[in-house]
Design brief:
It is built from twelve helices and twelve strands. The chain has about 300 residues and is an alpha/beta fold. It has one domain: Protocatechuate 4,5-dioxygenase, Chain B.
């Protein structure tokens, strides 16, 4: 073997070894856990107080006859003081449901970006314990498109997904999550994500979609109810295109418009044929301030029972 070839072979081998030691962009460190950024503010930081708070909200909700299988939920993401009672109506439907995987889809409140970010941290931690991330499915979503990736900063401070976890931990027990944050809240992004999610989970009855969104922001209670009624009408009709149109025209408002459009489209691909509005209110119903309120809604999207 010639000296030049020997040197070349040695350098190539060295680069391969170094490359194998470097983390992949899709790799996840098992010790890399998303610690709570809202415990003690958006919901109680003490485990027992948090559990008691959730049980109080659930006890005031009721399980309704769905007439089919839940394929998706739409749930608000404000502090529990404001939207916990509305959220509880949705989570009450999951008791005894057997779901073991929840795909959480929320908006990005703190970082502007195009496309979708899927968190590849190993787990989310709340005062009630840790919830593992389904890294296999998360990587499949990321691999589907170049604008689907993991942007750590998009998840670092985001409350829209974490706020759902203590409720889910209470009603489900053991389950996995796929935390997804949408940057640009447009119909095209929602449609692309919905198509991929539906293809990946088709036939998996253990998996539920969840869209996290509040509704109108800082209008009078009367105006908020009109804007939110428009939103509710599109949910009941499973009408993502109509929702996108009216969001753009200012006829309704939702900070998680993209996530809601996504689950409407994905749930329809998975067989959903109807929606039920489970709870609706605004912050003025809690605070008494009817001048500048935020709207909340919870709903379930349902597919017929398998024949």
């Amino acid at each position: 073997m010639q000296p030049k070839i020997t040197i070349f072979f040695f350098l190539a081998l060295l680069f391969c070894i170094i490359g194998a030691m470097l983390p992949s962009p899709l790799a996840a460190d098992k010790a890399d856990i998303h610690h709570s950024v809202i415990a003690g503010t958006w919901y109680p930081g003490d485990r027992h107080q948090l559990s008691a708070t959730i049980q109080k909200y659930l006890s005031c909700s009721r399980k309704v006859p769905l007439g089919g299988t839940p394929r998706a939920l739409i749930v608000p993401h404000a502090g529990y003081r404001y939207s916990g009672a509305v959220a509880a109506h949705a989570y009450r439907q999951l008791k005894g449901s057997g779901f073991s995987r929840i795909i959480l889809v929320g908006p990005s409140h703190y970082l502007a970006f195009d496309g979708v970010s899927v968190n590849l941290q190993s787990a989310y931690e709340t005062p009630l314990g840790s919830v593992p991330v389904d890294l296999d499915l998360a990587r499949k979503i990321i691999s589907a498109r170049p604008d689907f990736r993991w942007i750590r900063q998009a998840h670092a401070r985001e409350h829209a997904l974490e706020i759902q976890l203590p409720f889910l931990q209470t009603v489900l027990g053991n389950f996995q999550i796929i935390p997804i944050v949408i940057g640009r809240q447009d119909y095209a992004t929602a449609e692309r994500l919905a198509r991929i999610l539906a293809a990946l989970i088709r036939g998996r009855r253990d998996t539920l979609l969840l869209a996290s969104s509040d509704l109108s922001h800082y209008h009078s209670s009367q105006q908020a109810r009109m804007l939110d009624a428009c939103f509710a009408s599109h949910v009941l009709a499973l009408d993502a295109k109509g929702l996108a149109r009216d969001l753009a025209a200012g006829k309704t408002e939702a900070c998680g418009g993209g996530p809601v459009m996504t689950v409407l489209l994905a749930a329809k691909r998975l067989g959903a044929t109807k929606a039920i509005i489970l709870g609706q209110a605004n912050s003025g119903d809690v605070t008494g301030d009817q001048g500048r309120v935020v709207g909340y809604l919870s709903a379930v999207l349902i597919a017929p029972f398998p024949k």
